[in-house]
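Reproducibility note. Readers wishing to regenerate the assembly model reported in the main text can use the exact inputs given here. Chain order matters: entities are listed in the order in which they were concatenated for prediction.
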Amino acid sequence: TQLLEQSPQFLSIQEGENLTVYCNSSSVFSSLQWYRQEPGEGPVLLVTVVTGGEVKKLKRLTFQFGDARKDSSLHITAAQPGDTGLYLCAGPNAGGTSYGKLTFGQGTILTVHP
Amino acid sequence: GAGVSQSPSNKVTEKGKDVELRCDPISGHTALYWYRQSLGQGLEFLIYFQGNSAPDKSGLPSDRFSAERTGGSVSTLTIQRTQQEDSAVYLCASSLNGRTGIETQYFGPGTRLLVL
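Running the prediction on these inputs yields the following structure tokens for the assembly.
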């Protein structure tokens, strides 16, 4: 069973601060995805990383995939209240008949205070 | 175009009753997934459909849970004889063909189920 562990579980910061969320596994993933979920809504895909060592930037968000493809991080620069939400990492099933089946981390609840 | 829709948005039921949750995926998406999410937690995979077939039902917690998909479109998740531990948000997602792990899954808003 492939597991993804996220840390921290909760993060409460002031507007303008920087933060990093980690997603770790003992298993190798062919790719990892990061989702953001707001209350009352379903998760929305932010990014997919597929190459070991890859770094992707999305405005103030920077995503990194570990060289060994066992871990990933999400860094937010100058956080804003609009960044508040549940951040989830997810990776695909290793094989079999459900290539699209995703394993999710337990999530990081981020609160950015004005 | 329209996104994934789910109904009802909220459902309160009594222990022992049966419930049906509905998912309308994005038109043309052949892959459909059901997940369950406990309060503020990550998502737990339940079942995957490719067309009308379910090649992976490994996440269904017990034989009280079943799902079907008809016409390669609408899916229904049925929970029989509900228990309090079934209380959760049930999320449905669809993707274009589900053949790779890097497809985008589009999620519906979920059905919040509360079993009293």
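We highlight two features of this model. The CA atoms of residues 81 and 112 of chain A lie 5 Å apart. Chain A has no helices and eleven strands.
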